[in-house]
Design goal:
alpha/beta, seven-stranded mixed β-sheet, 9 strands, about 45% helix
Length: about 300
C-alpha cells in the first residue's frame, strides 16, 4: 500500500460489480457476514494497512484492533453498494437534532447547499439513497460530486450501470477552473447539491492546509476549502456513522453540522477563513472518531509518519 491515498489502486470496479451481482441473489445480512472473511484476508496480506491502522489508534490515544478496524471497512464497502443499489432503506437512518432541519429546509425550498463529506463512516450512503429517490425531502435531489476522475473513473462507471437513473453528476478535480465554478454556482442556484471530500489531499497540487488533528499536524486539501469559499453557499459537514462500529445490521446515525464560517468578506480575509473552516471540519472529525473509532477509513500515511 502506498503512502498517499492517490497512489493506491482505486479502480477495483470488478469487485464492486461482483458485490452488486451477489446482492441480487443473496440476503444483504449474509453478504455483510461474508465481508468479515474478505476483511480478514485483506488484514492478513496487507502489512501497511495494519501499520496505518495502528498509527491511527496511537494518534487517537487508545488501544484498538487493526483486524476489527479493517473488517469494519469491508462491511462499509458492502453497504456502499447496498445504498447505490437501493438495498439500504432510508428507515435505517436516525437523524440527530443538529443542523439537518436547516439542510432539509434548504433542499425543499430549492436552495442549493454544499455537503463536505469524509472517509469517516459511510461517505457514499446519502448519495446512494438520493440516487434512488430516498432522501427524506419533498423533492428529488440532484447531486454534483467533485472527485478525481482519473482515480475513481471505474467506480463511477459501475454506479451508472447499477443505477442508470442516478441523478448524480461527476466533475473531476482536474477540470476545476473559473468556468467550472460558474457551472457549479448555476447548479446551486437551481437547488442542486454539491458534494466534496475534505479529508484527502489533491493528487495534482502540493498546496495543503496543515491542521492539528488528533494531536499532530496533518495535511488537509486546500482546494476543497478554497472551493467552498468561492461558491459561498451554505456548507454542511455530513457523516453517516454505523450505530455500532462492528455490527452486521445496517443501522446508521446521520450527523449534519453547518460550517460556521462565512466567506462574505474581503479577499484578503479569505485565506484566514479558509483555514478556520478547515479547523472546524477537522474538529468535527476528531469528535466523531472518539465516538466511533473503528469507522475511520483512511488507510494511508495520513500524518506523514
Amino acid at each position: 500500500m502506498a503512502d498517499n491515498w492517490y497512489e493506491q489502486k482505486q479502480n477495483n470496479s470488478l469487485g464492486y460489480y461482483l458485490m452488486f451481482k451477489c446482492l441480487k441473489i443473496l440476503p444483504s445480512w449474509l453478504f455483510r457476514f461474508f465481508a468479515i472473511f474478505v476483511g480478514f484476508f485483506y488484514w492478513t496480506f496487507s502489512k501497511n494497512a495494519r501499520r496505518y491502522s495502528k498509527i491511527y489508534f496511537k494518534r487517537l490515544g487508545r488501544r484498538g484492533s487493526s483486524l476489527k478496524h479493517i473488517i469494519c471497512f469491508a462491511i462499509n464497502l458492502v453497504e456502499d453498494v447496498q445504498s447505490w443499489a437501493g438495498k439500504l432503506s432510508f428507515s435505517n437512518i436516525s437523524w440527530y437534532d443538529d443542523d439537518v432541519q436547516e439542510l432539509v429546509s434548504n433542499i425543499d425550498s430549492g436552495k442549493g447547499s454544499v455537503l463536505m463529506i469524509s472517509h469517516l463512516g459511510n461517505a457514499q450512503m446519502l448519495k446512494g439513497l438520493a440516487s434512488v429517490g430516498e432522501s427524506g425531502t419533498k423533492r428529488r435531489i440532484s447531486i454534483t460530486t467533485i472527485s478525481d476522475a482519473n482515480i475513481s473513473a471505474g467506480f463511477n462507471s459501475l454506479l451508472n450501470q447499477i443505477n442508470s437513473d442516478s441523478s448524480t453528476k461527476l466533475i473531476s478535480t482536474d477540470d476545476i477552473g473559473p468556468e467550472t465554478i460558474l457551472l457549479l454556482q448555476e447548479r446551486l442556484e437551481k437547488g442542486d447539491i454539491v458534494v466534496i471530500a475534505g479529508d484527502r489531499v489533491s493528487a495534482h497540487t502540493g498546496r495543503n492546509i496543515k491542521i492539528n488533528f488528533l494531536g499532530k499536524e496533518a495535511n488537509f486539501p486546500y482546494g476543497a476549502f478554497l472551493l467552498i469559499s468561492l461558491l459561498d453557499y451554505p456548507t454542511y459537514f455530513v457523516n453517516g456513522m454505523r450505530q455500532r462500529d462492528f455490527a452486521l445490521n445496517a443501522k446508521y446515525d446521520m450527523f449534519v453540522k453547518k460550517c460556521p464560517v462565512s466567506f462574505d468578506c474581503k479577499r484578503k480575509e479569505r485565506e484566514e477563513r479558509i483555514k478556520e473552516a478547515a479547523g472546524f471540519y477537522a474538529k468535527n472529525l476528531e469528535d466523531l472518531c472518539g465516538k466511533h473509532p473503528y469507522q475511520w477509513y483512511n488507510f494511508f500515511d495520513f500524518w506523514g509518519e
